Amino acid sequence: MFAYIIKRLLWLIPVVIGVSLILFGIMQLVPGNPAAIMLGTNVTPEAIAALNEKFGFNEPFHIRYFLMLKNFLTGELDSIYYGDQVINIIGRRLTATIELGLLSLIIAVLVAIPTGVIAAVKKNSLFDLMSMFIATIGISVPAFFTGIIFIYIFSVYFPILPSSGYGGRIWTLSGLRHLILPAFALSTVMIASTSRITRSSMLDTMKEDYLVTARSKGVAEKIIILKHAFRNALIPIITNIGNQLAMMFGGAILIESVFAWPGVGRLAVKAVESRDQPLVFGSILILSILFVLVNLLVDVIYVFINPRISYK
Q1: How far apart are CA 282 and CA 79, in angstroms?
Q2: How far apart are the C-alpha atoms of 54 and 58, rounded to whole Å?
Q3: Of 70, 195, 80, whose CA–CA distance to 128 is shortest?
Q4: Is residue 169 part of a domain?
Q5: Is the residue at 115 inside a domain?
Q6: Mind giving me the DSSP string for 70-124?
Q7: Which residue has the higher pLDDT, 5 or 40?
C-alpha cells in the first residue's frame, strides 16, 4: 500500500508538467501584451519594456514556460497585479476554499446517503419518486444558478443570512453564517448525484444471495440494511463522492464569484480579468494538484472499506 501511494505521488510530476504546459499554452493564445494591459493606456513604452523584461515576456515560448514553472516550484513566482509571491497570495486564500469544500462535503454526505438508502429500501414509494425527481433537477441545474436563487430567497426575500463576503473562520458564528449559503449551493450537485448513486448501489446489493440467507436466518432488517447491504454498497458511493469533491474545486470558481467568497477560485477569476499570467498559472495548478490528491485519498479509503482490495 505504501509503495502504491509513493507511486501515485510520483505520478504528480508528469501531471503537473502536462497541466502546466497546457495551461501555459492556452494563456499564450490570449491576444494582447500582458504588460501593456496591466499598465493601462497612459503608460510609456519604456515602462512596458521594463515589465516585459522583469517577467520574461520577451523570451521564447519554451524559455517563458520553464522559467514560470521553475519559479512556481521554488516559490519565487511573483504576481504582476498584487506585487507579491503567488504562493503567499494563494496560501492566504486556500483556507477559505478548503472551508467551503469541507462544509459542502459534510452537507452532501449527511443529506445524500440517508436519502439514497431510504429511497432504495422504500423502492417505488412516494419518498423514492419525489427524492429522485428532486435529484434529477439538482443534477440539471448549475450550482451557480442555485446560489443566485438561494441569495434571493434567504438574503433578499427572507433576509436571514448574508448574501456575500467572508465572516471569519468556520468555527465562529459570523463565519458559519456567511458560509451556509455558498456551501449549500456548492453541495447541491453532489447531493443529487450521490443520492442517485447510493440508491442504485443499494438496490444492486440488496439483490445478493447472502442478504436473502441473512433474512432466512432471522437477522433484523435494520442490521441487514446498515451492516451488510450498505457496507458492500459503499465502493461506488465513495467513488462518486471523490469525483464530485474533486470537481467541487472547479465549481468553487463560479460559487466564490457569486458569493464574493475570498477563495482560490475567485482569485483565479480576478487574475484572468487582470491578465496576471503568473497568478492564473499558480491558481489553476494548485487546484489541479488538489484534484489529483483527492483521487489518491479515495483509492486509499477503498482499502479500509473493503480489505479484499489491494494495490500492487
Answers
A1: 9
A2: 9
A3: 195
A4: yes
A5: yes
A6: HHHHHT-PBPTTT-SBHHHHHHHHHHHHHHHHHHHHHHHHHHHHHHHHHHHHTTT
A7: 5
CB atoms within 10 A of CB 243: 17
Q: Give the whole-angstrom CA distance, residue 52 versus residue 50.
A: 5
Neighbour-count burial of 186, counting CB atoms closer than 10 A to its CB (0-12 exposed, 13-18 middle, 19+ buried): buried
pLDDT digits (tens, 9 = 90+) for 170-213: 888 888 899 999 999 988 988 999 999 999 988 888 877 777 78
Which residue, 135, 145, 133, 158, is CA-closest to 185? 145
Domains in the chain, number: 1
Hunting for cell 490528491 — which residue is that? 293
- The reply to whether 218 falls in a domain is yes
pTM over 0.90: no
* CATH code, 105: 1.10.3720.10
Domain containing 134 equals 97-260
